[in-house]
Design brief:
about 210 residues, Rossmann fold, six-stranded mixed β-sheet, His_Pase_superF_clade-1, His_PPase_superfam
Length: about 210
């Protein structure tokens, strides 16, 4: 459990964009990040908000690991995998779009959108994702600044957990690729900011050549 007297900061970074996101399909575990997005991710080490990071965690999927590795060298850190940060497992729906599923499996999609316990894809329910993310937050972050590269679904759920929001709040949160969510711990978790476009954040001024 997170120590009550620790003052900690947790920055959740959504992985670099993927083809699956552009095509609006559920990604597979081996879905890679796009090269242009990884190049942008490498630049984030220059952002003021990420210049003092004490530890770096990443989800195990390829797209998250690639994003973390793009940052690790510039930050002077090693990226450590944590399965608790893994993406929502949608089982048989991987590689399919919500539009396609709605056209052919409308009842299943309706159950999934309306019932957090539903698992029509045969894998992880939203309730199970919430429990997983809540456990990870409960064990929390060490003192200082932790950066965790993970997935939009995990970040959306983390915000919902911290705000003690009802399950339907998950669907009302929008997390874009390479956006930052800033959580702070001092006796309890609090949301400082969410969905911040990291590429627009201030960077140090460069001396002219």
């Amino acid at each position: 459990m997170t120590a009550p007297n620790v003052i900690g900061r947790l920055t959740l970074l959504a992985h670099a964009p993927t083809r699956a996101q552009r095509d609006a399909v559920f990604p597979r575990a081996d879905e890679a990040a796009e090269e242009t997005g990884l190049a942008q991710a490498a630049l984030l080490a220059e952002v003021h908000a990420l210049r003092k990071v004490d530890r770096l965690w990443t989800a195990p999927e390829v797209r998250a690991r690639q994003t973390a590795d793009a940052l690790a060298v510039a930050l002077g850190l090693e990226a450590h995998e944590d399965t608790a940060l893994a993406d929502l497992n949608v089982g048989d729906w991987q590689g399919r779009s919500l539009a396609d599923l709605s056209a052919h499996e409308a009842d299943a999609v309706g159950a999934w959108l309306g019932d957090p316990e539903a698992r029509p894809h045969g894998a992880e329910s939203l309730a199970q994702l919430r429990a997983r993310v809540a456990r990870w937050l409960e064990h929390g972050t060490a003192e200082g600044h932790t950066l965790a590269v993970t997935h939009p679904a995990v970040i959306r759920m983390a915000v919902a957990v911290v705000l003690e929001a009802p399950p339907r709040a998950f669907w009302r949160l929008d997390i874009a690729p390479l956006s930052l969510t800033d959580l702070r711990w001092h006796r309890r978790w609090a949301v400082r900011a969410t969905g911040v476009d990291a590429l627009t954040l201030p960077r140090p001024l460069r001396n002219p050549a």
